[in-house]
């Protein structure tokens, strides 16, 4: 190949690689495989090795080219990188707005609201279309030159179609998934464990060896564009995207006023946990750059923008009491009664303590100051006791020896950490059983939640679950809070629930240890309620996945006089669909246990696939388990499978089996 030919080929390769890089790392899609992209890079590298004169700084091969540095050089920012004022509520936001409106009473205020990424702020400067240097924020005036490292971030373009000198500001971040993967590797080699993705992003950018930075797969979201004299902040974002940068996507928008900002804020707060990376609020700026400038700077923060932070996910408060709740199975759960505290926008006054052992593990006493946390929609829990704040007036908690509701004796099964009220007619258990009966995986009666059931019970409209089917519109409508319309809806939902597959019916009965899976096993094995009712202990134990304990509790349930009467009454209203006898599928007789997260489908979907082919999904690993399917972050089942020598397969192999 001649020099001229090589030059032409190199130019074309660079363009093509850059196009695919942009698709993959900025737009999150790829038309060709990563392997094919690597192979293009490889060809380019070989050509450049042959013709070193043709290497340019914007070549994709130059992303990881630097040698380790001794130290970072300092860089003075041409325009100071300011910090933002924080506001934590709509009220504080409105105060901020009132304040700045006073300074510019004649101006129209429009806003640009965008995610506040939780990473490390960067300034990236381009000259003549080429990435010139990149610096950390530092103290806002002087940062560190991290150009070598920033070049390894694939979502940062090495060249842009803008010849003037421009500065792009944004945040280098690491996704939650990468964060976990990297910490796992660090742990294996006894390296440093990072506290959170921000910490890791900062640590990765401040590596003297760019190869380490490259291995961390940082991402970059841009939010400011300086040097082009654009009129609005929203225009900056539009231009950034045009130049090939990533921005906040559908997490950012222009807002006409405070109300629109609040609405956007709420929407983002709800999606926050599901995002692949951490954000800790919204940045709200006045959209007009002219107005932004006019409002000026106070201290180190511009007046024209504010960080509208999400409320924290943890807070400290005091445990005023510990009470005990009785569940459907009679399980006693200690619950902390808290001095009310706001966490993540919700006032929290109770937190679960799970069981007695958890209280011991925490070392919790009544009266203690604690850290309470809340993740997603889960019930808040106590994370840590602040023992340094004790006054000496704290009291020890003891699990009661008697059920707090029916005063019956409490028992703890051998080796179990949970105490149970063993009184079968305990009103608390009865109530919880009703909740269970109508729940989604049981009778699935729409609109009939705990609050309504409580009202029915308290007004004497029902005694047991069978009574639900006797309810009339006229019974419900007069109750407080229920209008005619909702009464009608509930009656309709009850009517629709009368036909029910055997497995769901069995699950709804609330037999101790009979969960969703076991109910399906029982239904498929016996084929009808009649056969199951008559089955003796020995026969019950023949059902796949059913051991002595489950067999015993099932057997006992059907022989209890009270249950017998209930069943007789219930069957007057309910029509059970028996499972169809299936032809033996190709997985017949094989049990499958899943552990860890599957990438391409939910666990429920995977189980259905197994079942459809005649196989048997199970929750516990034993010698008789056919396969243990291991996804990402597998749990103890994986260890157990290895110990027992059970066949272990990954997601790909599983697909081959169920294809
Ligand atoms: Zn009780």
Automatic annotation (TrEMBL):
Report the record's Gene Ontology biological process terms. Answer: DNA repair; DNA replication
Catalytic residue list: 116 (n6-amp-lysine intermediate)
BRCT domain ranges (all copies): 582-659
What is an example of a Pfam family matching this protein?
DNA_ligase_aden
An annotated Gene Ontology molecular function: metal ion binding
Gene3D superfamilies recorded? 5' to 3' exonuclease, C-terminal subdomain, 6.20.10.30, BRCT domain, DNA ligase/mRNA capping enzyme, Helix hairpin bin, Nucleic acid-binding proteins
Query: Which reaction is recorded as catalysed by this protein?
Result: NAD(+) + (deoxyribonucleotide)n-3'-hydroxyl + 5'-phospho-(deoxyribonucleotide)m = (deoxyribonucleotide)n+m + AMP + beta-nicotinamide D-nucleotide
According to its UniProt record, the EC number is: 6.5.1.2
Amino acids binding NAD(+): 83-84, 114, 137, 171, 309
* PANTHER family associated with the record: CHROMOSOME TRANSMISSION FIDELITY FACTOR 18, DNA LIGASE
Q: What is this protein called?
A: DNA ligase
Q: Which gene encodes it?
A: ligA
């Amino acid at each position: 190949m001649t020099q001229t030919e090589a030059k032409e080929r190199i130019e074309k390769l660079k363009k093509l690689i850059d196009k695919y890089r942009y698709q993959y790392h900025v737009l999150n899609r790829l038309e060709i495989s990563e392997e094919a992209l690597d192979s293009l890079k490889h060809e380019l590298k070989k050509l450049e090795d042959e013709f070193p004169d043709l290497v340019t700084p914007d070549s994709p091969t130059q992303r990881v080219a630097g040698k380790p540095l001794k130290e970072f050089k300092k860089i003075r920012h041409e325009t100071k990188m300011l910090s933002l004022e924080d506001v934590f509520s709509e009220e504080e936001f409105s105060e901020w707005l009132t304040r700045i409106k006073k300074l510019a009473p004649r101006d129209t205020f429009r806003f640009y609201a965008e995610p506040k990424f939780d990473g490390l702020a960067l300034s990236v400067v381009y000259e003549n279309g080429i990435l010139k240097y990149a610096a950390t924020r530092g103290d806002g005036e002087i940062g560190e030159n991290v150009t070598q490292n920033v070049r390894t971030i694939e979502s940062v373009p090495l060249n842009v179609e803008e010849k003037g000198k421009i500065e792009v500001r944004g945040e280098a971040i690491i996704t939650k998934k990468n964060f976990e993967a990297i910490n796992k590797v660090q742990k294996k080699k006894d390296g440093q464990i990072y506290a959170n993705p921000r910490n890791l992003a900062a640590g990765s950018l401040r590596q003297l060896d760019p190869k380490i930075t490259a291995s961390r797969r940082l991402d970059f979201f841009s939010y400011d564009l300086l040097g082009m004299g654009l009129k609005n902040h929203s225009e900056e974002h539009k231009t950034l995207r045009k130049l090939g940068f990533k921005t906040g996507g559908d997490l950012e928008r222009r807002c006409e006023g405070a109300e629109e900002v609040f609405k956007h804020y709420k929407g983002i707060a709800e999606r926050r946990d599901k995002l692949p990376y951490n954000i800790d609020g919204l940045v709200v700026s006045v959209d007009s750059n002219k107005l932004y400038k006019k409002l000026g700077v106070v201290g180190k923060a511009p007046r024209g923008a504010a960080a509208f932070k999400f409320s924290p996910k943890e807070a400290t408060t005091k445990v005023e009491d510990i009470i005990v709740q009785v569940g459907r199975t009679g399980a006693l759960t200690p619950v902390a009664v808290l001095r009310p505290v706001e966490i993540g926008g919700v006032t929290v006054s109770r937190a679960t303590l799970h069981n007695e052992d958890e209280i011991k593990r925490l070392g919790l006493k009544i009266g203690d100051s604690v850290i309470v946390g809340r993740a997603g929609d889960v019930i808040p829990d106590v994370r840590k006791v602040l023992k340094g704040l004790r006054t000496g007036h704290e009291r020890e908690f003891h699990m009661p020896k008697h059920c707090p509701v029916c005063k019956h004796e409490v028992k703890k099964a051998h080796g179990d950490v949970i105490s149970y009220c063993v009184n079968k007619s305990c009103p608390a258990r009865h109530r919880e059983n009703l909740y269970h009966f109508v729940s989604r995986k049981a009778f699935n009666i729409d609109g009939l939640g705990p609050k309504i059931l409580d009202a029915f019970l308290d007004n004497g409209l029902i005694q047991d679950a069978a009574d639900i089917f006797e309810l009339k519109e006229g019974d419900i409508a007069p109750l407080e809070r229920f209008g005619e319309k909702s009464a009608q809806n509930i009656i309709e939902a009850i009517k629709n629930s009368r036909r029910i597959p055997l497995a769901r019916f069995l699950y709804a009965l609330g037999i101790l240890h009979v969960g969703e899976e076991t109910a399906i096993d029982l239904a498929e094995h016996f084929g009808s309620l009649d056969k199951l009712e008559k089955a003796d202990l020995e026969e019950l134990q023949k059902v796949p996945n059913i051991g002595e304990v489950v067999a015993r509790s099932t057997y006992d349930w059907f022989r209890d006089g009270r249950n017998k009467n209930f069943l007789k009454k219930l069957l007057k209203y309910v029509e059970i669909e028996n499972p169809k006898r299936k032809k033996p599928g190709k997985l017949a007789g094989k049990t499958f246990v899943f552990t860890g997260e599957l990438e391409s489908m939910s666990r429920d979907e995977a189980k259905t696939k197994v079942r459809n082919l005649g196989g048997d999904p199970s929750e516990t690993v034993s010698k008789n388990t056919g396969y243990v399917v291991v996804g990402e972050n597998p749990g103890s089942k994986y260890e157990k499978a290895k110990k027992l020598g059970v066949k272990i397969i990954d997601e790909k192999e599983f697909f081959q089996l169920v294809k």
